């Protein structure tokens, strides 16, 4: 199984449909396809509904949607009910485990993929007990919000795969078919890919970001402390400030404020504003050599398995 791991504003209907049409499982993020940040959760929810409908007009293949259930659990049900209304067949559940959420999706015959911020044997087994259909084993190699445990993808995958009886997907630092082969050899039954798909023609990431990724390797990435754990960034105009704060052993809260919170990803990766934003990727970017159509990426990744 191949799925795209991008969430938030780095997906849209065209991109998600392209992944599913190529044989993967496209996943719609909460702010998929948006040109501006929403001013309320309800606006974000309705925008997501419209993007789901656009996607259904572009593919007859299955695709999924993301449920971000963080510390404030109050809004999960309206989102889940919208997924049911729109006929979503697969939901990616990020971060926290909650019995009621899994029971809701089971009642509506919706498959669930569980992805912990930091996968552990304990939370993987708990997700299986609650009814998750698939678990994503996220290694420290990933981009975006990096796990709190410094365990690489090819160490975390066999640990989690040996601990549960349901399928496990590997994610973090997988940039070409070699990573897929290694993941399968280590016990995964598929992969979840993020950074590589950022450089696809169909992805809504800014073109400056795509070219920066193609021109960079993992050696260019800077790791810094922030909330909830760590982030990486390729060089941007904001990077020297973050590097200076990191060298001063600045606390995570101050670092988070300095990077303008999560809006830094919107500024850097969606708008290409390197003065205010960062470009966070996984360590697998060393293998990314060009901007290509989604179909070409999927074909290359799945050449041994399709």
TrEMBL record:
Gene3D superfamilies tied to this protein: Aldolase class I
Keywords associated with the record: Flavoprotein, FMN, Monooxygenase, Oxidoreductase
Pfam families, per database record: NMO (PF03060)
Top-level division of the source organism's lineage: Bacteria
Transmembrane segments: none
InterPro entries: Aldolase_TIM, NMO
GO molecular function, one term: nitronate monooxygenase activity
PANTHER family for this protein: 2-NITROPROPANE DIOXYGENASE (PTHR32332), 2-NITROPROPANE DIOXYGENASE-LIKE PROTEIN (PTHR32332:SF20)
Protein name: Nitronate monooxygenase
Originating organism: Vibrio casei
């Amino acid at each position: 199984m191949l799925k795209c791991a991008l969430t938030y504003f780095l997906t849209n209907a065209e991109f998600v449909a392209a992944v599913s049409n190529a044989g993967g499982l496209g996943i719609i993020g909460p702010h998929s396809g948006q040109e501006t940040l929403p001013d309320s959760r309800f606006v974000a929810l309705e925008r997501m509904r419209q993007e789901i409908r656009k996607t259904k007009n572009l593919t007859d293949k299955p695709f999924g949607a993301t449920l971000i259930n963080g510390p404030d659990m109050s809004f999960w049900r309206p989102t889940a009910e919208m997924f049911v209304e729109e006929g979503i067949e697969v939901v990616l559940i990020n971060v926290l485990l909650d019995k009621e959420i899994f029971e809701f999706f089971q009642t509506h015959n919706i498959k669930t993929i569980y992805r912990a911020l930091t996968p552990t044997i304990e939370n993987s087994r708990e997700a299986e007990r609650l009814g998750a259909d698939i678990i994503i084993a996220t290694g420290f190699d990933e981009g975006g919000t990096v796990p709190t445990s410094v365990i690489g993808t090819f160490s975390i995958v066999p640990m989690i795969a040996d601990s549960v009886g349901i399928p496990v997907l590997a994610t973090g630092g997988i940039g070409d078919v070699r990573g897929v082969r290694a993941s399968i050899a280590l016990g995964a039954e598929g992969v979840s890919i993020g950074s590589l798909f950022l450089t696809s023609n169909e992805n809504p990431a800014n073109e400056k970001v795509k070219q920066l990724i193609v021109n960079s390797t993992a050696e260019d990435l800077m790791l810094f402390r922030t909330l909830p754990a760590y982030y990486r960034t390729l060089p941007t105009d904001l990077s020297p400030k973050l590097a200076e704060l990191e060298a001063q052993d600045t606390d995570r809260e101050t670092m988070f404020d300095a990077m303008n919170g999560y809006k830094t990803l919107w500024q850097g990766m969606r708008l290409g504003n390197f003065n205010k934003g960062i470009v966070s990727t996984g360590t697998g970017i060393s293998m990314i050599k060009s901007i290509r159509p989604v179909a070409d990426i999927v074909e290359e990744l799945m050449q041994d398995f399709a």
